Amino acid sequence: MKLLIVEDEVDLLIAISNYLTKENYLCELADSFRKAEEKIHLYEYDIILLDITLGDGNGLDLLKIIKKHNVQAGIIIVSAKNSLDDKINGLDLGADDYMTKPFQLTELNSRIKALLRRRRFEGNHLVTFNEIILDTDSKSVSVNQQHIVLTRKEYELLLYLMVNKNRVLTKEAIAEHLWEDNIDLSDNFDFIYTHMNNLRKKIKRCGENDYIKTLYGMGYQFTDQ
């Protein structure tokens, strides 16, 4: 899962990023309104952690921009302000949750997991596709009731494919979702083929079905059709 953390307190920004990275989230950082707005226009995120008080702007104005452009990310407001009006305004503008500083990083992680379950997995921590079961809490995968060992990237790739089943996903979309902004500097996307091929082999070892379809000149599709 890909997160954007918008926070102008650099120490807190780094602390949140370090903690969530250890929890296997892909974190991108913005320490100002300007940087956050630029990233939101260029990239897609599953969750945006949004501070209200930024040095060069108001997080609620950034939230308005997010909603105006129909960005589909879940929004958790994180702010030192404990004002009821700020909380109500944020939720009325479309935020999904609101946390007041100081907070425990473990609680933030729980809020993120809960929001992901509500938005992406219909409230369930299990994502299933025929004989494949992916547990978003334990980060584990089983095929035909056999546990398979995946690397972090293989797990994220499988989750991305399953959540977007039957959709055609371009190599560019996959790369941008699973790797950080510097993917723009890559000359080609051959590494996606390697990860895709390794994932395909591991799934097929536990069953005969190959759900990863290569659509030459287009990308990939996860489907049983």
TrEMBL record:
<dbReference type="GO" id="GO:0006355">
    <property type="term" value="P:regulation of DNA-templated transcription"/>
</dbReference>
<dbReference type="InterPro" id="IPR011006">
    <property type="entry name" value="CheY-like_superfamily"/>
</dbReference>
<dbReference type="InterPro" id="IPR039420">
    <property type="entry name" value="WalR-like"/>
</dbReference>
<dbReference type="GO" id="GO:0000156">
    <property type="term" value="F:phosphorelay response regulator activity"/>
</dbReference>
<feature type="DNA-binding region" description="OmpR/PhoB-type">
    <location>
        <begin position="124"/>
        <end position="224"/>
    </location>
</feature>
<feature type="domain" description="OmpR/PhoB-type">
    <location>
        <begin position="124"/>
        <end position="224"/>
    </location>
</feature>
<keyword id="KW-0238">DNA-binding</keyword>
<protein>
    <submittedName>
        <fullName>DNA-binding response OmpR family regulator</fullName>
    </submittedName>
</protein>
<keyword id="KW-0902">Two-component regulatory system</keyword>
<feature type="modified residue" description="4-aspartylphosphate">
    <location>
        <position position="51"/>
    </location>
</feature>
<dbReference type="GO" id="GO:0032993">
    <property type="term" value="C:protein-DNA complex"/>
</dbReference>
<dbReference type="InterPro" id="IPR001867">
    <property type="entry name" value="OmpR/PhoB-type_DNA-bd"/>
</dbReference>
<dbReference type="Pfam" id="PF00072">
    <property type="entry name" value="Response_reg"/>
</dbReference>
<dbReference type="GO" id="GO:0005829">
    <property type="term" value="C:cytosol"/>
</dbReference>
<feature type="domain" description="Response regulatory">
    <location>
        <begin position="2"/>
        <end position="116"/>
    </location>
</feature>
<keyword id="KW-0805">Transcription regulation</keyword>
<dbReference type="GO" id="GO:0000976">
    <property type="term" value="F:transcription cis-regulatory region binding"/>
</dbReference>
<keyword id="KW-0597">Phosphoprotein</keyword>
<dbReference type="InterPro" id="IPR001789">
    <property type="entry name" value="Sig_transdc_resp-reg_receiver"/>
</dbReference>
<dbReference type="InterPro" id="IPR036388">
    <property type="entry name" value="WH-like_DNA-bd_sf"/>
</dbReference>
<dbReference type="Pfam" id="PF00486">
    <property type="entry name" value="Trans_reg_C"/>
</dbReference>
<keyword id="KW-0804">Transcription</keyword>
